[in-house]
Amino acid sequence: FKVTLLSDGTASYSMFNKYYNDENAENTYDTYSDLWDDFKAGNVKDLTTEQCRALTYVWVQDDDIDVTWVINRIDTIGQTNESIKTKINELYTSNKIKRYYLDQLWNGLSDDEKAQLKKLYHIGDAFAEAEKAGKTPMVILGTSNSSETDLETYITLIKKYYGNDYAYFYKGHPAYPTNAYPEKQALLERLGVAELESSIPAEFFYYFYPNIAYSGYGSSTFTNVGNNPSKAVFAKGAVEAAKFLKGKAAGLYGMGDVIQF
Fold first, then answer.
1. What is the spatial distance between Cα 164 and Cα 195, in angstroms, rounded to a whole number?
2. Which pLDDT score, from 0 to 100, does residue 128 have?
3. What is the pTM of this model?
4. pLDDT score of 87 more than 60
5. What is the 8-class DSSP label of residue 176?
């Protein structure tokens, strides 16, 4: 039978890199390959344990199951270990790993279709006032509600640092719509941060307005917006922030190092 694995975003990359992105990747692969063989032989029955979760051994099943993994980016997985990196490239070349993302959708649209998309999502409406005032929009990326630690502190700091040259917008995670959290909406209003529709992919704003800036909690969006001038990563030190920014120019990045101000 055939299995198609659809990436769920950052979690898929984090899980893969947790097991297969260090110098011990080959040993890890062998360990989970043996676990898979034990499972097939009926020696492993409890699939709820950490070592038997599907995400930990699914990558060793290729010899037995026709598995295709659909992900957003190739360059965010297995880049530390050369042998794993080579294997990933081989799987990508052979279509065992397939890349589908918004940029491919975008590049396939005509100018008229892009205009319709912009109208459908009211994307132009969000930044009209900022453009009229001569300010650059900065989109603050949210995450799961429970993981948005010190949101008020980070927004306050970033507004102090970048000042009035920017107009500030908050874009919630699609799984945690901002309108489901009235206390967060009240916070954003008090801080002078406009709310963007959570269900819209954050990359769409960049496609229509490539000069906007991004900041916020760790997100795959940072690596999906080309040479966009990302400004800050919340709740991460400089080393971790650099993984999201991938060497792109940034100002107050790694804000986990400077939360006391």
1. 18
2. 86
3. 0.72
4. yes
5. S
